[in-house]
Amino acid sequence: MGSNLGDRAGHLLGAVTALARRPEVRLAGLSLVYETEPLGPPGQGPYLNAVAALETECDPQELLATLLAIERAHGRVRRERWGPRTLDLDLLDFGGRVLERPGLVLPHPRLHERPFVLVPLAEVAPGWRHPVFGRTAQELLKELDSSGVRPWHPASG
């Protein structure tokens, strides 16, 4: 999950709260919050990012629909690719499934390239293995520069 517009921490907390209130979803783990510089168009503020591990009775499409509804409830408007956003909730993996459907690719097609995903993922699910590459988040991180992924502290903004 990520946010770089408005009350960034409030949007992340709101997403976690909304997920925890869903009867078909159980929060199984939550990483620290990290601050990172944005990808995409210039002029954006830094992101706050975190990873939540969930257990659910939903299928992947149902869970994705829930995530998109939570994004909309937090004012998410999709204007430009990789543009600023109030809330971005990505479905990274779903029980190791490999899936390609319109609007849903599992595992997330770029998660192995993104330190801002892999750092909190390695924290919350250290035994997780990429379903295609067979490598852990920590192993994937060794090939990337993760120096820009900094633990965020509320007093720092």
Uncertain runs are: none
Q: Taking all residues together, what is the mean pLDDT?
A: 93
* Total of helices: 4
Helix fraction, binned, reads 25-40%
Order of helices and strands: EHEEEEHEEHHE
CA gyration radius, whole angstroms? 15 Å
The helix-and-strand class reads: alpha+beta
What fraction strand?
Answer: 15-25%
Total beta strand runs? 8
Trace the largest sheet across and list its strands: 1-4-3-8
Q: Give a short account of the largest sheet.
A: 4 strands, antiparallel
Report, as a whole number of angstroms, the end-to-end distance: 18 Å
Gross morphology: globular
Quick description:
The protein is an alpha+beta fold and 157 residues long. Helix content is 27%, strand content 17%. The longest helix has 14 residues, at 8-21.
Can you offer a commentary on this structure?
With 157 residues, this protein is of the alpha+beta class. It is 27% helix and 17% strand. The chain contains 4 helices and 8 strands; from the N terminus they run βαββββαββααβ. The strands form 3 sheets. It has a 4-stranded antiparallel sheet. Strands 2-5 form a two-stranded antiparallel sheet. Strands 6-7 form a two-stranded antiparallel ribbon. A hairpin with a 2-residue loop joins β6 (99-101) and β7 (104-106). The radius of gyration is 15 Å and the shape is globular.
